Recover the amino acids of this structure.
């Protein structure tokens, strides 16, 4: 089991899939010679040539739209939007074209398209380079959504995403790129819609995804020191959502905390909380708690940014509140 | 020999133009009888562009269409029955009732779909062009859009991408003078939309879009250029929609257009002009015309009957077809 | 460089232009150092090598004229009269900064002197400047609005929509493309199929002009013509300042997309060095005055840095302010468990 | 007050006319406004009454919103017409990254008195690109206020308040309510943002709703009376800021809640309201909170499909029966 970084895992996966499927194409800004601003596509241009690794001008609408056109006509495509903050520049193409094309046509077209993008704050990148916008896409029918938290999951899920015949938004967190993890040598796929229990516990369930899983695990470790056993579930894919695993855990712990980095108001947590209370109302011993970013844009200055984005302490506090220990 | 081919082709083109006109007239009638819901955007008056362009295309070539797209569908070889069924929201329609007038797609016939968003199809056309380039075939993409779309950001991004990568895409502006109610002369400050090609270093031509032969000839040149890997072309086809923007347009669009203007354009009706020239050249005779008219009438009637006899989709189907 | 038959007025102006260019250069250099030493978080985009464009254009603007700037916008802010103290404070995330620490390098604005803000989205300034132009027209003033943007932005949709709208309405706008040859890592020769961005003016029926963007006097002259045209109500102009970004896209950019030789070649066309030589040849500047200028500026900037460093960080709860004009908890719903 | 009957459209025109007369910095900008007074007649008479202040644009949604923003930053009060809520996607960067963030990003320097107005909703067989209800996006985006009234009285009062607001407003109106009539006073009045309105009082269950769903809820409330169930219908009118006080008051009284909107159920505004109620009023609830919204598919064209996808009176009724454990009469 070699240790690799998140970036290496993604790159390895893209390379393997490009070798496997000679039609697979990558398209996006600065992904060629430069290798992507986070280095994910480094070396791929040299190996697969400019037709299959297409660096584009800054034209988000056309990147998504052309990826869609290519996917509809037989070219499996991975499009990259450098920051999820720029998906609004291509919103019509993502929401009105990519997500609806198959349905509008009565189910007659396959859209083997992955939109890889990157989100999250924590690096002083301010309001237009730090957002977590998954809730916008969660609300829109027609897109699958993947939010991995480890190099292992990223590899297995990216493979599934690429081989999927539906549009998939694959969201990476910028603070995950340098994190390390071990992955097996052989090929493996992780199917969509399977959450992963990253830590077992009996007192409270923490539901999370992407970078917040790391914070949740740290918080859980801290809580264990105080005798509180938190179960940490990494959702891994938001669409489809593994409600079964969630409910199984809720029926065991009877207490739920949902943690995400997107704005709390109208975030994914609201939807998940509703689903739980709709399906397992009588199992709940306390109101479901949600932790998300404060409802403001991400500010630049460090103390301000820290105040806005959820922290390990917030999670600890949230768990204690659920257990009426505050 | 060539002459014979031309004659057959011209007759076929003429029949297609008539089919489009009749289809639209019938669709308006059905709409007025509340058999079609929502709205339709008739392309009456623009038949020469649809037919001139699509006559150059092969079945495997791609087309991107607009909200005013029935004519382009028919010219690209769509089945009238399934089109009409879609307009009537029936389960036998091209999109099983999910798309309607504005979203007809026929992937088998190379029709990658009509778009409800002005300028929405241009980036997709670029993608189809990429696909052709990567697969190494000699297909082309015909991307239709209206004069209203030329001021959308997607126009700019798409033409630039197609130009830098020399993609086999022909950008066809159906310049019918109005974006809903806004005249093109107020929406741009240059005299010819084709001049925008200068901004991307690609050829741009403005032409008489009501002259089906002119459209055919220019399209042929552009397609040859595209098939030989020389890149995209912008065709600005000057035409006019005789009907309003859509079936909900007050006074069929005469609140923002003058009678004189309308009459002037009727004088240039593409079907009338083509018919006259075909008679003049002895390609069309009254007998042949009669035959064509009957065939067109029958096919439209059959399409309507088929659509009316088709069932509506089962409501539960509404939650199917989203994912593969 | 031009300069035949100049007058005394010119020499004063020219020295002022030179001083501003030096100020931008030093500001950017010091910012780079502060970033390297960890005193500035996030990322920064330096405009070293592009000073002539900022200064040339802004030197013909009035205080009440508007500009929108870009992620590479420190130079524009300084040239438009921005306060370096508040700029450094903002870069360091302090409460005395232009945006009270909420914006940072990519989002500096000073509405009191017409700076409608820098933008983190490439081409983000285009639609805003159209609105400013429209507002000028509706209010009937003779202000002018200038939109700075890079070559990368000229391939994005908003460029297209904005130039068209400004043209059909004859808005008092000057679109200034700082063609520094690269959109992040992508060469303009790859991303654009025409030789000059200025050609794109033809698609909108507006004059396009391309000048040596490293020659401050050329830029100034072209900008003056465009600004006058706008003030007279004759509509927008597209101005392309051909320049070269001597630093990476952002600090820390490994710059694999260009060679050292290329950068060295363009260093010889350094706008400050060129102007310095010109002024010395014209006997307007000598070694002593030059040294004084650099010293004075360094002193001012060091003081500004000190001001920033001594300024406090904002209180965490400040994060919940300034979102709406109407303040109130119900709007933010600030609850954290 | 002297009341007369106006349609929603007339109420809106009247509000705009009064405000434009009062304040010369207000102008309207968008596509196809002059020829027909807007594609829904929503500005009828205004182009003539205020020449030069109702501005037609080319089809350039990004730049229409952006231009509104720029004008707002420089002393004007733009009212932006976006044709269809679906087209917010074409101006998404402007709305999410610029309009919503500029004041905050720049440390509170700017005022942004802009109203972005768009008709939303389905039910007219306008298919997937002209039928969406997207309010949840803008509620999730910090920096915007979102308004979505249903009655002429509320429309007029809220249009006036929105225009006078120094913060950006997204104003949605359902396409199917334009010609609906209702009483509107002749006298001047405004309705503050963030105030819900009880449209039908009741004690057994609260339906929290807005826009066209209020009409369905009212019908259901009347029918339920016969069955002895007293339904309270709470019309939010303003979605953000949300009138939490009034919601809490009603829930504390009825202990049962249904939240209804036409937008896609998943991650719709109902999710937020529901989650918040169960967080803060957990012990007040006698039953799970039920939500009513559209299926998670695009809006299909064909009438039977469209009717199936969007919620209406029947889905509300079914939910009520569910909530009270009643048999559903299969009609």
């Amino acid at each position: 089991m070699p240790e690799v970084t998140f970036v290496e895992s993604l790159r390895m996966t893209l390379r393997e899939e490009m070798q496997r499927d000679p039609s697979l194409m990558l398209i996006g800004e600065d992904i060629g010679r430069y290798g992507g601003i986070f280095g994910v596509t480094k070396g791929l241009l040299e190996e697969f040539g400019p037709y299959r690794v297409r660096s584009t001008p800054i034209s988000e609408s056309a990147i998504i739209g052309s990826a869609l056109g290519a996917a509809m006509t037989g070219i499996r495509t991975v499009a990259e939007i450098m920051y999820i903050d720029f998906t609004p520049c291509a919103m019509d193409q993502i929401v009105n074209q990519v997500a609806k094309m198959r349905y509008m046509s009565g189910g007659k077209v396959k859209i083997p398209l992955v939109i890889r993008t990157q989100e999250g704050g924590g690096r002083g990148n301010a309001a237009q380079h730090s957002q977590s916008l998954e809730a916008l896409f969660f609300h829109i029918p027609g897109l699958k959504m993947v939010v991995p938290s480890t190099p292992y999951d990223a590899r297995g899920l990216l493979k599934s995403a690429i081989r999927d015949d539906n549009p998939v938004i694959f969201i990476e967190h910028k603070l995950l790129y340098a994190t390390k993890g071990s992955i097996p040598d052989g090929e493996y796929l992780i199917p969509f819609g399977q959450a992963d229990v990253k830590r077992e516990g009996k007192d409270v369930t923490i539901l999370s995804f992407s970078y917040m899983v790391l914070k949740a695990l740290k918080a859980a470790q801290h809580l264990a020191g105080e005798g509180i056993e938190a179960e940490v579930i990494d959702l891994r894919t938001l669409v489809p959502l593994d409600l079964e695993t969630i409910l199984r855990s809720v029926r065991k712990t009877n207490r739920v905390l949902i943690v995400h980095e997107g704005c709390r108001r109208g975030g994914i947590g609201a939807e998940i909380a509703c689903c739980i209370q709709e399906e397992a109302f009588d199992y709940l011993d306390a109101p479901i708690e949600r932790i998300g970013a404060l409802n403001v844009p991400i500010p630049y200055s460090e103390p301000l940014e820290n105040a806005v984005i959820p922290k390990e302490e917030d999670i600890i506090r949230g768990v204690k509140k659920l257990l009426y220990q505050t | 020999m060539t002459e014979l081919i031309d004659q057959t082709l011209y007759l076929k083109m003429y029949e297609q133009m008539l089919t489009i006109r009749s289809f639209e007239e019938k669709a308006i009638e059905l709409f007025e009888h509340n058999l079609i819901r929502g709205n339709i955007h008739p392309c009456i008056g623009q038949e020469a562009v649809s037919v001139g362009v699509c006559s150059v295309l092969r079945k495997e070539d791609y087309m991107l269409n607009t909200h005013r797209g029935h004519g382009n569908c028919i010219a690209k070889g769509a089945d009238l029955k399934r089109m009409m069924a879609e307009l009537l929201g029936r389960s036998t329609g091209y999109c099983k009732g999910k798309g309607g007038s504005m979203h007809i797609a026929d992937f088998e016939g190379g029709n990658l779909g009509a778009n409800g968003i002005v300028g929405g199809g241009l980036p997709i056309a670029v993608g189809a062009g990429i696909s052709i380039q990567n697969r190494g075939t000699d297909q082309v993409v015909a991307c239709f859009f209206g004069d209203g779309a030329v001021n959308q950001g997607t126009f700019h991004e798409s033409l630039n991408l197609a130009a830098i990568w020399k993609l086999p895409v022909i950008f066809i502006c159906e310049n019918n003078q109005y974006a809903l109610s806004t005249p093109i002369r107020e929406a741009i400050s240059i005299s010819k939309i084709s001049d925008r090609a200068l901004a991307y270093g690609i050829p741009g031509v403005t032409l008489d879009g009501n002259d089906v032969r002119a459209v055919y000839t220019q399209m042929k040149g552009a397609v040859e250029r595209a098939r030989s890997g020389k890149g995209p072309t912008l065709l600005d086809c000057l035409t006019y929609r005789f009907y309003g923007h859509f079936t909900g347009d007050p006074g069929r669009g005469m609140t923002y257009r003058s009678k004189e203007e309308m009459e002037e354009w009727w004088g240039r009706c593409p079907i009338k002009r083509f018919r006259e020239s075909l008679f003049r050249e002895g390609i069309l005779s009254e007998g042949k015309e009669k035959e064509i008219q009957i065939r067109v009438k029958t096919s439209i009637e059959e399409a309507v009957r088929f659509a009316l006899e088709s069932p509506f989709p089962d409501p539960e189907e509404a939650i199917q077809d989203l994912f593969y | 460089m031009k300069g035949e038959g100049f007058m005394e007025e010119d020499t004063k102006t020219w020295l002022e232009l030179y001083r501003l260019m030096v100020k931008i250069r030093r500001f950017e250099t010091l910012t780079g150092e502060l970033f390297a030493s960890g005193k500035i978080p996030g990322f920064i985009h330096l405009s070293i090598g592009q000073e002539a464009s900022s200064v040339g254009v802004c030197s013909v603007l009035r205080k009440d004229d508007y500009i929108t700037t870009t992620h590479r916008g420190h130079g524009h802010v300084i040239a438009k009269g921005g306060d370096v103290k508040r700029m450094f404070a903002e870069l360091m995330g302090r409460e005395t900064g232009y945006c009270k620490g909420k914006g940072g390098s990519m989002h500096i604005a000073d509405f009191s002197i017409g700076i409608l803000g820098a933008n983190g989205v490439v081409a983000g300034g285009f639609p805003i400047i159209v609105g400013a132009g429209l507002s000028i027209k509706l209010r009937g003033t003779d202000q002018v609005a200038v939109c700075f943007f890079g070559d990368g932005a000229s391939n994005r949709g908003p460029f297209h929509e904005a130039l068209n709208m400004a043209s059909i309405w004859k808005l008092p706008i000057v679109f200034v493309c700082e063609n520094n040859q690269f959109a992040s890592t992508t060469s303009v020769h790859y991303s654009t199929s025409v030789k000059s961005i200025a050609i794109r003016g033809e698609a909108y029926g507006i004059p396009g002009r391309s000048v040596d963007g490293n020659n401050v006097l050329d830029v100034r002259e072209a900008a003056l013509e465009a600004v006058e045209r706008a003030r007279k109500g004759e509509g927008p102009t597209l101005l392309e300042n051909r320049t070269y970004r001597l630093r990476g896209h952002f600090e820390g950019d490994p710059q694999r997309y260009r060679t050292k030789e290329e950068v060295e070649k363009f260093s010889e066309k350094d706008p400050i060095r060129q102007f310095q030589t010109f002024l010395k040849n014209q006997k307007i500047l000598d070694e002593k005055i030059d040294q004084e200028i650099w010293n004075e500026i360094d002193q001012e900037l060091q003081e500004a840095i000190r001001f920033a460093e001594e300024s406090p960080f904002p209180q965490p709860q400040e994060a919940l302010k300034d979102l709406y004009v109407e303040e109130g908890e119900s709007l933010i719903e600030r609850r954290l468990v | 007050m002297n009341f007369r009957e106006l349609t929603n459209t007339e109420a809106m025109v009247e509000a705009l006319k009064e405000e434009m007369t009062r304040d010369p910095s207000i102008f309207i900008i968008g596509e196809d406004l002059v020829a027909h007074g807007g594609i829904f007649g929503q500005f009828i008479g205004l182009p003539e009454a205020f020449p030069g202040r109702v501005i037609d644009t080319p089809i350039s949604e990004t730049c229409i919103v952006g231009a509104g923003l720029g004008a707002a930053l420089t002393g004007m009060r733009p009212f932006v017409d976006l044709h269809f809520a679906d087209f917010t996607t074409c101006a998404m960067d402007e709305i999410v990254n610029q309009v919503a963030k500029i004041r905050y990003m720049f440390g509170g320097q700017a005022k942004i008195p802009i109203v972005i107005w768009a008709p939303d909703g389905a039910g007219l067989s306008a298919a997937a690109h002209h039928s969406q209800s997207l309010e949840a996006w803008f509620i999730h985006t910090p920096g915007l206020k979102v308004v979505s009234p249903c009655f002429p009285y509320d429309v007029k009062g809220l249009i006036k308040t929105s225009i006078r607001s120094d913060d950006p407003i997204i104003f949605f109106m359902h396409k199917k309510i334009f010609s609906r009539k209702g009483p509107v006073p002749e006298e001047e009045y405004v309705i503050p943002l963030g105030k819900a309105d009880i449209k039908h009082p009741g004690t057994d269950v609260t339906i929290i709703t807005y826009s066209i769903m209020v009409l369905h809820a009212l019908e259901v409330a009347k029918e339920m009376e016969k069955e002895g169930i007293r339904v309270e219908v709470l019309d939010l009118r303003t979605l953000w800021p949300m009138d939490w006080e009034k919601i809490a008051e009603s829930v504390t009284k009825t202990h049962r809640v249904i939240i209804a909107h036409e937008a896609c159920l998943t991650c719709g505004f109902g999710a937020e309201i529901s989650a918040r109620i169960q967080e803060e009023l957990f012990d007040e609830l006698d039953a799970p909170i039920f939500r009513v919204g559209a299926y998670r598919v695009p809006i299909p064209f064909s009438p039977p499909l469209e009717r199936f996808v969007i919620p209406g009176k029947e889905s509300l009724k079914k939910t009520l029966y569910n909530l009270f454990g009643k048999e559903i009469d299969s009609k």
